[in-house]
Write a structure and sequence with these properties.
Layout lengths: L21 H12 L8 H8 L3 H25 L6 H8 L2 H33 L5 H17 L2 H31 L6 H5 L10 H11 L19 H31 L12 H46 L5 H4 L10 H14 L5 H29 L6 H19 L3 H22 L17
Amino acid sequence: MMANEPSQIAPSPVKLSRVLGLWDLIIIGIVIIQPIAPMGIYGVISNEARGHVVTTILIAMVAMLFTAVSYGKMARAYPSAGSAYTYVGQEIRPALGYVTGWAMVMDYILNPLICTIICSKLTQNILPFMPYWALAIGFAVAFTLLNLRGVKTSARINDVLAAGMSIVVVIFFAFVIRFLWGLHQYGPGFFTQPFYNPATFSFGAIFRGTSIAVLTYIGFDAISTLSEEVEDPRRNIMLATVLVCVFTGVLSSLEVYAAQLVWGSKPFPPEMVESAFPLVAKQVGGFFLFHLLNFTILIANIGSGMGSQLGAARLLYGMGRSDGIPKKFFGALDPKNHIPRNNVIFVGTIALIGAFLITYDQGAQLLNFGALLAFMGVNAAAFVRYFLRAKERNWFDFLSPLLGFVICLFIWRNLSGKAMLLGAVWMVVGIAYGAVKTKGFQADLVKFDIPPDEA
């Protein structure tokens, strides 16, 4: 090369862009969980808990906060897109990290899949002439295309979705207040019955209801998968994860409290359990509020489907980058938008195919299997790092992850038999792949590539 020729500089590697602030994370988390999270499962919880829905929601919030704290603390240590996969693999064993990541993959992929199904079904209530297959294709493609535009675009769309759902919640509260205001005067006991009704209270019913109410919070962990796209991740991931859990718990409690004041403790007919909250809305606001709630649940699932596909793509990127799954495909980033394009398309394809193979109920039952395994893994990783290996130990670092692990284990053990069977099949397939790939799970199963904190 001639002396006066400019030297060729190798292009810098493509990285995820740190463009998300604390508010972006909170909005993404709220939309994934949904501001109307308890509305879909309200009837099931009410029947199981004998009308004590608000009590189970609050108990579940305390339970999930332990896991949220573990997620936040581990995200401080490892600001990586791999989330629980990275935490468990780094702190305990790479092989266990791989198993945790594989469980998370099922959870994350199933969410956009069931959102595709329910969005298609809800749209048919509005446009009955539209065939299911056309709507399923439309939603799966829409989720994929919007996420391919980049994470900042997704965050702005989430802002709009969260604002719209919040307005509907306010409208519902206004109708409930007007409804109660027009009735006869109640004593103070009427307003405490949603928390405790001696005529129907049972500890067994409360525990059964709480195990279902935990579903209200499923999805908060997706915040940690965005660690490499967050400004100041060591601060913001922790704050956002805990704040989203608290916000969800408070808002959900207010929603079901209002519904219980209207409906009381009487059970819902089995065939109407899924439509329980719209039935309450119809009682206070007629067909207008009934259809408004139907439309809002549709919008909420659009936001959830988009957000969960975003999280699934980042999780697969974290596993692919560390060679837990084929790196060339899953560990690649689009040089223009700095997103794992292959993974977004992959998850969208599975959502589309799955929408024609399984029902919404089947997909929803399977969600908890992978999520709860991941939650247990994160609590175990936090316990190892901040208690067993810490130079200075305290009771909180012992008790918080331990309680989080035990509670998640209890809930996981109470999943339906079918969910446990299908979940076990998924895990066997993943473990078999890992065993073949590494000739029996050697130490080099994965090579974790933890980027420095660039915030």
